[in-house]
Amino acid sequence: MDNPEETKQRLESEETEKGFYEPAGRRGACSFVHNGRYCLHQGYTGGNPVLSISPQNSLEVFDLHTAEWSTAHALNKPSRDEEEIDELPSSENPKSISGACCTVIDDCLYTFGGWLSGYRNADVHELNLTTMVWRHLEAQNRGSGPFLKDKAGMVAYGSHMVCVLGGYGYPSRDHIVNGVYRGQKGAEYAWDLNSILDICWTNELHLFHIEQGVWISPEMAGTRPPPCAAFTLTKVDPHRVVLFGGKQKSGRVNQLHILNMENWHWSGAIYPTRPEDPWPSKRSFHTACSLVDPRCVPTPTEALASPHQLGGRRFDWLPCQPPVLSPPEAEGSCGTLEPQLLVLWGMDNEGDSINDAWILNLSSLTWKEVSLPTCIREGKVWHSMAAHHPTPYQAEVITFGGGAKDTKIGIRHVQATTVFHFGVSPLHQLCLEFVSGLYEDYAPMLHCLPALVQ
After folding, report:
1. Per-position DSSP letters for 248-300, written without gaps between them
2. Statement: the pTM of the whole predicted model exceeds 0.85
3. Are 403 and 416 in contact (CB under 8 A)?
4. Which long-range contacts (CB under 8 A, 24 or more apart) does 173-182 make?
5. C-alpha to C-alpha distance for 313 and 23, rounded to whole angstroms
6. What is the pLDDT of residues 373-393, one digit of tens each?
7. Is residue 162 within 8 Å of 124, Cβ to Cβ?
8. Quick one: how far is CA 235 from the chain centroid?
């Protein structure tokens, strides 16, 4: 009988020869969609978070049209003669970390913070997604910026600034004046008394001006969220951001907060008006995304959500039964209602994964639970998710990786890609679903097809 490790290596070798590739399972990776491609950066890739961080100079890329994974290697800055670009480590590259947050503005990815082996940082990095060159954006006033932290939230603010909120960390030397920590005016810091480090949850909010390289503290109105980390921060229209859930000093929560970025006014905590009202349970390490394009803010539609899971090492559409929602509105309709927010999975106060999905209607602030198909047998924690909008009324929601509870090893990494379709599916997707139904009948002849089609 073959050694299990040798068998695994042999199978991986055979799959590589056939052209199949799938990234290693991971937790805490940054994820985003750019030009129809779902991208992952960094994250834990093994059982030991100190020794198993994904490569710092690469993006794992999932093509939504071909359903294939590939690796895109980032490069260093051009040399002085601007003729050579290498792939060696550079001070411009972000350190190999997990728990960073990110956002995309035009053709550039911006990352902030993160963690590695007890080290946290407050660095901002830019990756030009056209040239694949990293740039470290040095802050001119670090003492006025955020603490060194991870598990924060980040969204774009206009075309020249990024907004960073909350997180879990500690002050840098630049924040200490005469032996006293100097935090942001108006912000709160809840110190973790169970940690041997001076570490805290925070609700500080900063803007970073990309061109000027300075941190800015806008004046807040309303009631800020309590100090929190591992929440979701989602832009739902050009001016509003929704914060949901997360871990506070007192435990995990299911609070909802809305920030208007036009006047920097917080809504305060939003709870169900009646005990019987549907509402997601308390959670952290979950994900959220807008089901309509935030830039367009059309009438949201509870369209047919058809999730499919990509199993194994090969593109494989599983025969899932999609959850039935209200039918979409008539084609061509263009309303002005609020968008909808999808919240998926997460970790509860007992440390178990939650296997559910919820949709928030922003116009009525009401939740509706979505029944997941039977092929999704377990929830995930600290997974990655991002949404692609082929049209303002459509959403292709892609998730990858995360952790699932294992009775033998605690948390195991999941190597699975799941795609949810909201709205009318694109024609190529409908064709793929039809062809996949014929797989068993025509499997013996698949070797006759080109590798890409197989």
Report:
1. ETTEEB--EEEEETTTTEEE--B--SSTTS--PPSBBS-EEEESS-TTT----
2. no
3. no
4. 174/142, 174/143, 174/145, 175/143, 175/147, 177/143, 182/143
5. 10
6. 888 989 999 999 999 998 887
7. yes
8. 13
